[in-house]
Amino acid sequence: MPWSSALLIYRLLLPFLFVAALPGWVVKMLRRGGLRTRLLERAAIYQKHGDDPRATVHMHAVSVGEAMLALKLINAWRARETDRRFVLATGTATGHQVASDAAIPGLRVTYAPLDFRSMVGRYLDRFQPCQIILIEGEAWPHLMLECEDRGIPVALVNARMSQRSQRRYRRFAATLRPLFSMLKCVAIQEPDDRGIWQALGVAPSRIHHTGSLKFDSAGGAHPVRQPKFQQMLDAFGKDRRIVLAASTHAGEEPWLAAAIRAVAPDALPVIAPRHAERRAEVKTALEREGFTVVLRSKFESPAVLEGHGHAFVIDSTGELRDWTAHADVVIIGKSFKATGGQNPAEAIIASKPLIFGPHMENFQPLATRLITEHGCLPAHDEVSLRNAITAALDPAQAAMMTARARQVLAPHEGATDRIIELLK
Fold first, then answer.
1. Are the C-beta atoms of residues 221 and 347 closer than 8 Å to each other?
2. Do 159 and 193 form a contact (C-beta atoms < 8 A)?
3. % of the chain surpassing 90 pLDDT
4. Which of 67, 224, 267, 364 fits a 20 to 30 Å CA distance from 19?
């Protein structure tokens, strides 16, 4: 299909897709507190104040994870150029909250406009960015076209594409080439991805292998033990081993907690759901498994909680990195009862033994390399999960795994600096 026909269909369908998605989106915003923020900025309607920075670098980050990557890049860039100002446009309420809570000097946090031509136009009129940097994806047609018309360069950094996505994009490569050819710079995580971006119309001279911003231990905050977190954990009994199930999805929490209890009844299952608004659902599911559930958001008791039947649920946003520093073992969520997986890098950087399930599609080829180099413990069912937890709690095996996992991440060291050099 020609690009002009595809663009016409997109423009005709966009209002209907927006109306169809609106109810679910509003419900999600209510759950995550997004309606209390400046949500009209999604429609490029702004409060009347004149302090918005103009002619600055803009970063677009849809999810919480992408927002945190953008903050990492901004902090590293500001370490070089302390007077430089940035705008970070997020796509979700939780991403907006994390970016706002970071309180970085010279950073204006806003919502990315919906991809209607009028809204994108008002957004660009308001801020007049000198450059737009897309974190990992989301090359929306109207944003790209408006930037092309105005001479605003658009870069895509930390670009990644799963095998499944590559197959899908190759099918429509002829249609999509005019869109992706507008990118002035693409920073890829893996050298093998160069071919797909060329097939999508990006000039070879604009494709640069930098490694992964996500997997670079430099240029960002590392997991750090927090005294207030340790005080909470000590309430369950001092010196208890901590098994952290990180970024879990529906159905995983009771299953993982039961496996931890079965092989290490003295260990404390610490469950960090990917979405904090699921707290009630997670609490109910764990209670059905016989756990006494304590929510981080309602933690009050300084006294020791008797018995080993507790599960501690981290129903907060933006704290997972530092909770990782307190763990003895980290289990990656969304890899057992869902697909895609979650980022294992923080656990590796914190030198924590790592367990994940069979579904780490979004973190290939890293996940396969970790398995091949014995830098993690893969598990595919209840038996293998229990065996993996037992092995990971052994200090000698844990030390061996964490050292090998750090070696797997080594090629990504310095990715942050390489990306900044490209963008400058």
1. no
2. yes
3. 67
4. 67
